[in-house]
Amino acid sequence: MTKKSPAAPDLDPSGLRKGLTSYGDNGFSLFLRKAFIKGAGYSDAALDRPVIGIANTGSAYNPCHGNVPQLLEALKRGIMLAGGLPMDFPTISIHESFAYPTSMYLRNLMSMDTEEMILAQPMDAVVLIGGCDKTVPAQLMGAASAGIPAIQLITGSMLTGSHRSERVGACTDCRRYWGKYRAEEIDDQEISDVNNQLVASVGTCSVMGTASTMACIAEALGMTVPGGATPPAVTADRMRIAELTGAQAVAMARQGLTIDRILTADAFENAMRVLLAIGGSTNGIIHLAAIAGRLGLDIDLKTLDRMGRDTPVLLDLKPSGQHYMEDFHKAGGMATLLRQLKPLLKLDALTVTGRTLGQELELAGPGFAQSVVKTMDDPVYPQGGIAVLEGNLSPGGAIIKQSSADPLLMEHEGRAVVFENAADLADRIDSDALDVTAHDILVLKNIGPKGAPGMPEAGYIPIPKKLAVQGVKDIVRISDGRMSGTAFGTIVLHVTPESAIGGPLAYVQNGDRIRLSVSRREISLLVSDAELRRRQELKPISPPTAARGYKKLFLETVTQADQGVDFDFLRAARPGDPAAR
Ligand code: FES
Ligand code: MG
């Protein structure tokens, strides 16, 4: 009989045993770990239970997460009432307006931080507190790769404000008012007044931007408790969701309900349906592709487009409609939407509750009269919010948010007015000398994943000032970048492959003719193949590089939009995919 280590019997709490630091002696490793947690004031009784990690993304630089201290308190209450031990830990937090050069550049870094800290520290399940645009996808990507039981807690949307008796909210109204200011329709005093009202509280943008989109997608994926997407940040409903999330995390730890059982192909199909039906942010596609990629799954753009033809936009929220997130919540939130979409959903997909989406919908009851979520017979827009375009300008696909585009411009042929990069655009867009009319097509190059780098939201090219002051509100715009989910206009995005790696977009010249036909799903450069080849030979492209640091890693390994702009080495290896290692 081997002699028992003297420290072994009571040094065996469930969660703390996980992933022992290597000192070459597991008994000693656990002994040390326990000494340090005792040093923080924990008793043996506190340790002998499931350990629930909490990814704490509170940050002074992230007002969208300004309610995290209250959420933590409610979460911890929920965890402890259910018999678990809450252990919060910091990770990177990213806010859209405070991240340079663009939040997307940092999303993968946050996902790596999340994955590695989940794996490095002992926990039986993890709660991910996310809200602002890139945080939820980063957390789901990281948790998917870490593979333990995980549940998403959304911070919740901000409240709407009021400007001269008009209801306003970030960020669709930020853009609308800035457009008015550029067109000299409002003065310095008014733009300063409205600045006080656009973000009326902590929480995420109040329209169907990327944060709201990802909140709805997280619930559609089954990654939040039912009703977890919509309560505003500062409400009691949001705090009760946090308490419930804590309790559910303990149940998941006990059941060993790992994330791969929830994030299945069916769950992603449900998420795509919801993305289309909410008129969701175009960024949602990129994030879904990145999350799916971590599990060896692909988001096929052609499938998305096919689904879009029989999935109408049902949610009447800005920028496709008129309401805000708090209205959606009062209208019953995601249950109201999912009830309408039920015939199109995979109802057997499992959720964090251990029940299926179909079972959760039954439990949610019959619904009530409201006007925010429309019916399939009377939708906001007859097709899905996003259409996928193809053609010689974008062999790997491009997208357009048709539900917030000008119907008159969706079948359009025009002359290209080309900007070589974001700096060129900033230099010339407001110049009186710019040769441009409302019938032209603005083309912006070098704002793709490698080009900028980080694929900034510069695809929302402003209306040239000389046209804006004439009252022009929309013009066809094309780029390899992204745009904010809160933006609107006839804007073609995610042109793949991007210009910085020599995609056809790189070879568009001033005066070329371009054809956009959303009905035919076409984006074409009306230049012959021979002429395109001649231009390519004349000016071969060398992709951008960096000498050191995160930028070097980024430029060497980032994938294109269709693979989620994830790093190739973070995607799950799959047969026949040369990008995966
Ligand atoms: Fe954070 Fe809009 S800036 S959600
Ligand atoms: Mg945004």
TrEMBL record:
Keyword annotations of the record: Iron, Iron-sulfur, Lyase, Metal-binding
Family matches, as InterPro entries: Dihydro-acid_dehy_C (IPR042096), DiOHA_6PGluconate_deHydtase_CS (IPR020558), ILV_EDD_C (IPR056740), ILV_EDD_N (IPR000581), IlvD/EDD_N (IPR037237), Sugar_Degrad_Dehydratases (IPR052352)
PROSITE patterns: ILVD_EDD_1 (PS00886)
Family (UniProt): Belongs to the IlvD/Edd family.
GO molecular function: hydro-lyase activity; iron-sulfur cluster binding; metal ion binding
Keyword Iron: yes
Keyword Iron in annotation: yes
Pfam assignment, any one: ILV_EDD_C
Dihydroxy-acid/6-phosphogluconate dehydratase N-terminal domain boundaries: 49-359
Signal peptide (UniProt feature, chain positions): none
Annotated protein name in UniProt: Dihydroxy-acid dehydratase
Dihydroxy-acid/6-phosphogluconate dehydratase C-terminal domain: residues covered: 372-564
